[in-house]
# Entry
Amino acid sequence: MAKYKYSCTNCCAEVEYSLSIALYLELKNSDHFKQVECSDCGAICEFKQVFGLLSSKIKKDKQTIISEIKDEAKKIANKVRSGDSRTIRNIYGEN
# Structure
């Protein structure tokens, strides 16, 4: 889950949300953060996203990366075994 930080435009209180990217995009596109009740000042106002130095980075640990690589390798191997000519051409070339 990615972390997103928002700030109340009324009192500048900051709130951090831990959301999936899909849920974040859904909330952002529905203007969810334009009318939010602030838990600090009690006002219903707009919350603006706060960007920090590392806001755009999502960290993965070594085990997660290795697991993802293994899963992708298995998918590719299964495609080659099943005779998927597009995958085979991508790996071995046209000849």
Q: What stands out?
A: Residues 2-50 form one domain. The chain has two domains: 2-50, 62-92.
